[in-house]
Amino acid sequence: xxxxxxxxxxxxxxxxxxxxxxxxxxxxxxxxxxxxxxxxxxxxxxxxxxxxxxxxxxxxxxxxxxxxxxxxxxxxxxxxxxxxxxxxxxxxxxxxxxxxxxxxxxxxxxxxxxxxxxxxxxxxxxxxxxxxxxxxxxxxxxxxxxxxxxxxxxxxxxxxxxxxxxxxxxxxxxxxxxxxxxxxxxxxxxxxxxxxxxxxxxxxxxxxxxxxxxxxxxxxxxxxxxxxxxxxxxxxxxxxxxxxxxxxxxxxxxxxxxxxxxxxxxxxxxxxxxxxxxxxxxxxxxxxxxxxxxxxxxxxxxxxxxxxxxxxxxxxxxxxxxxxxxxxxxxxxxxx
Amino acid sequence: xxxxxxxxxxxxxxxxxxxxxxxxxxxxxxxxxxxxxxxxxxxxxxxxxxxxxxxxxxxxxxxxxxxxxxxxxxxxxxxxxxxxxxxxxxxxxxxxxxxxxxxxxxxxxxxxxxxxxxxxxxxxxxxxxxxxxxxxxxxxxxxxxxxxxxxxxxxxxxxxxxxxxxxxxxxxxxxxxxxxxxxxxxxxxxxxxxxxxxxxxxxxxxxxxxxxxxxxxxxxxxxxxxxxxxxxxxxxxxxxxxxxxxxxxxxxxxxxxxxxxxxxxxxxxxxxxxxxxxxxxxxxxxxxxxxxxxxxxxxxxxxxxxxxxxxxxxxxxxxxxxxxxxxxxxxxxxxx
Amino acid sequence: xxxxxxxxxxxxxxxxxxxxxxxxxxxxxxxxxxxxxxxxxxxxxxxxxxxxxxxxxxxxxxxxxxxxxxxxxxxxxxxxxxxxxxxxxxxxxxxxxxxxxxxxxxxxxxxxxxxxxxxxxxxxxxxxxxxxxxxxxxxxxxxxxxxxxxxxxxxxxxxxxxxxxxxxxxxxxxxxxxxxxxxxxxxxxxxxxxxxxxxxxxxxxxxxxxxxxxxxxxxxxxxxxxxxxxxxxxxxxxxxxxxxxxxxxxxxxxxxxxxxxxxxxxxxxxxxxxxxxxxxxxxxxxxxxxxxxxxxxxxxxxxxxxxxxxxxxxxxxxxxxxxxxxxxxxxxxxxx
Amino acid sequence: xxxxxxxxxxxxxxxxxxxxxxxxxxxxxxxxxxxxxxxxxxxxxxxxxxxxxxxxxxxxxxxxxxxxxxxxxxxxxxxxxxxxxxxxxxxxxxxxxxxxxxxxxxxxxxxxxxxxxxxxxxxxxxxxxxxxxxxxxxxxxxxxxxxxxxxxxxxxxxxxxxxxxxxxxxxxxxxxxxxxxxxxxxxxxxxxxxxxxxxxxxxxxxxxxxxxxxxxxxxxxxxxxxxxxxxxxxxxxxxxxxxxxxxxxxxxxxxxxxxxxxxxxxxxxxxxxxxxxxxxxxxxxxxxxxxxxxxxxxxxxxxxxxxxxxxxxxxxxxxxxxxxxxxxxxxxxxxx
Lengths: 336, 336, 336, 336
Fold this sequence. Notes:
The structure is a homotetramer.
Chain A: E1 5-10, H1 14-25, E2 30-36, H2 40-50, E3 54-55, H3 58-63, E4 69-72, H4 79-88, E5 92-95, H5 103-116, E6 120-122, H6 130-140, E7 147-155, H7 162-166, H8 171-186, E8 190-198, H9 203-207, E9 213-220, E10 225-231, E11 239-246, E12 250-253, E13 261-265, E14 268-272, H10 277-280, H11 284-298, H12 306-325, E15 329-330
Parallel strand pairs in A: 1-2, 1-4, 2-3, 4-5, 5-6, 7-10
Antiparallel strand pairs in A: 7-11, 8-9, 8-15, 9-10, 11-12, 13-14
Helix pairs in contact in A: 1-11, 4-5, 5-12, 8-12
């Protein structure tokens, strides 16, 4: 009989509640053991809804011998301490990206976790979406030959509140980091990053010196080129789509439709667009948590690790530097 | 040097003007010699616009030795006499469908033209549309194996005036006839027709005992089944699309987009639909006239002949009979 | 705190295992209490995989006071007795379609269950698919005005074994029944059914007097027309798609893509098609079981009941009769 | 009566033959007067095919009083002299892009033509494609609000022969120039260009120091960002597609399908892709020549002029410089 991995979920913001719901009801190999949040009302509400214990006390979570793993979805600034604390308590750890807002903390976290020997998976959910997995699998199997051009869009419908932006680590660490991980995953290591940004949609964003629209040009180790476009204010909806053009084939991953029906009125055919990442990824978040649980249960390595998070973080900070200096920034991929 | 075939165009209603314009400016192998219409103002206006002579006198057209061919786009009731007159004058003939509103006149026209030896092409334009030609070519080449199921839609956005309907020959002869020709062309001979109709959109249509929505079930000689759906009031636009499902492959022909761009607004992606047959068939009408001219010039047989028109007419009257009797109507394909 | 409804799953064939998996891991409001199958190895295997008790003894299931509901996914011939047995034991019942292979047994089952007062939901999963729910919701909200034309396809990639067909209740009761329920749900009651069938794909199907391709024309009470096309041998994949054309709008529900990416090779763009109902309906089966559990928990009426199953069964037998007699068969919708 | 504009076509390579065919048979307002080419066999062959006089002597063309306009489709190096010669002979001029391979010759040509007062249209055909015209019209009408992001692809299926590349003026002047004109047309003036290139597909291209894949980042005067991706070796086909994301709406122009039908085989749906610009633009080339003829006949200004060609040329050379230096290159738009 296969035993479900008991996972504690820490941090009950939007992502945390998504993960909690998935752990409670959509992961074959996982079981939600307990939910924790600094706010007791939030913790109690989610605990009641999902019919699991709740707490505000992390020591209780880390000290619970029946808890095998911890999923961290708290604000970024707390990630590093929580991850290290959980790992030192012998819990396997899933952590939302980014691990930290600076490189030393990121490195320290990755290194500390490594010494404990627990599993460590980072929340780049696209790596677990069935569409991306299928297309990337074909690239890695050689069906595309050499990739020549990588192109991806990640766009939000509307900007978040300016207060959120102030603590987000900046545009590239907050938004582009997902695309940088995807680029590395699909095509390979990146050796140069050049960024361009503009604040167009919201004067408040411009006022805090931030941007809402960006282009990031990538040069891969192989010589292939790549471009990422990001927006916090796409207006029409949430978009995440990718193209990789290669020697033998080209692939395009897209799923803009919220529901799979058209509605035709005089002279026009219309379909509804995804409005946020939950619309866009109906399966990926549950898959990523299920995959984490299976790694724990079967003692296998996660597909996306702390080192991947570090690499994406380094590329995001290179993108930030390029944007600030107007120069291409070389990057040296770490060899593991 | 290749000489252009000089074609006279008779009948300057909507279809006639489309053909005149194509003959004047979009057919490599044809030249518009003269336009004729019973209404001198209409004839003069089109003649001036297209910079060709005009007349109201058909004897003048039929007696003109420089005219090699005549394209007939007058009201249906006049087709038969005009076709016969032109053929007897030694002119090759293109005629809009249907040839006549009754079987004896249709047969007489086909037979008479045959004895004159001139080329005779009927206006089933779908046979000349590049998309249909390509897909049907693959079926005929055997890429599909045996066809199992044929399905086609032909729908107008809005009903024509009731006065037009009164003289149209009835729903099946006016509308479905195109689909019946397409079915024979793509899949083969038909041995049974069953029809169902309803008047839903316009009380005036119901008042004259006509219908605006119909389904026609076909049984092909091969055993394959087919279904045609027709509407005079689709509302969203003009549609003509077909599917053939077969043993080895299935094909779907469609082109609903009027222009190839999407327009995305918050939560919705929209594209513009075809509103009429001119939107839907940007190339087929010119192609059909060009093909006719090439048959004349190169002395080859048209792809769609008077016998095809007769066969489609017989199927349309069988559909009408089935609708009126509520029974399946057997049809015996004529062997040529 | 919301308590999960404890559901016993009886019958561990393909559909039964799908339901068991969903009850075990993808329904917020349900919990898989026990699995039962006549074959102890099958029952034991699924019980082990899903970490739930198993049994071969239905009395044990019906006598278990902690079991609130039973989901029946056994072979059709056993449905009626099982449903009645469960209902008499005070269990709420979910049953796969059809309830029985003859009308008296269907009526008796529906009536008996009604007297017990338990919830009774039948497995027309399309009613729970998010795409269908969304489009149908807009029709019911009046956004379409009067429906004029209903069109739907249900096609399997390959025929099942002939042995299965022999006990399936016939083509229309086995396949078309789903479309008949969809037609009633989306457009309204049906008053006439005309069917056409052909055995084209497999000589063995012809040999047992069955068909593999069918067209069913519907006349709705409102005067609207409808057409269903069904195939057991579509070849390219599994298809379930629907169009409803109406006075103010037209809708098309489709989701042919198995994964949402294209693969482009020289001169061609290709995407993968759904191969079976599991590909096509990634969410509907879990949704239907979740909805059932919520009806039990919240004491609300299921969206699709025994009477709906009876109505679809009557329409399917009318379709069968029409096919056998070559005549349109009138149907009198039962008023509840 | 409207008189057709008599146009002489000079240069009978691939583009010249396309223009000649359109002038001969697909432009309502133009008439092909004569074709000219340095190669008498080529000139004679096209003249015979299109049934028009031919010559190898440009003085004859320029001295022919019945010729009102000249269309220049010769190799780029000869454009400037031919345009100036035609203009000085009082002929209106259409010229393929680019006008010349260096800025002084481009400026001199534009200035000289301006002094003669003849119409001067340059061959940016996308400005005449119905899809682009429709979408751009909506942007210019304000339906999009402020554009935020421009993105376009222009990709050839296979690289041309290396000998052609050597005389092409370089990647950006040969390929990207079309996209730069499109960017200016759709979004507005550009103030900074940054380019990235790579030679990936063909060692011969690398050997001559050229590239086959490029990314060009644009900064518009408005602050909007843009990115162009170009490839000489897309492999799957010819692509030209554009997106403009804006404040109120986003538009995507695309037409990858060569024919509008799908072909479904087990597990896969496939459609044919455009293989070259003729597939992609079935109407734009005829439209651009028709528009030129109407400008001549109606004495109106062309939509795309010598100054537009100069602006695109300047941007292309800026892109070339950016690629060579690795720096963003500022551009000062000329005010007219």
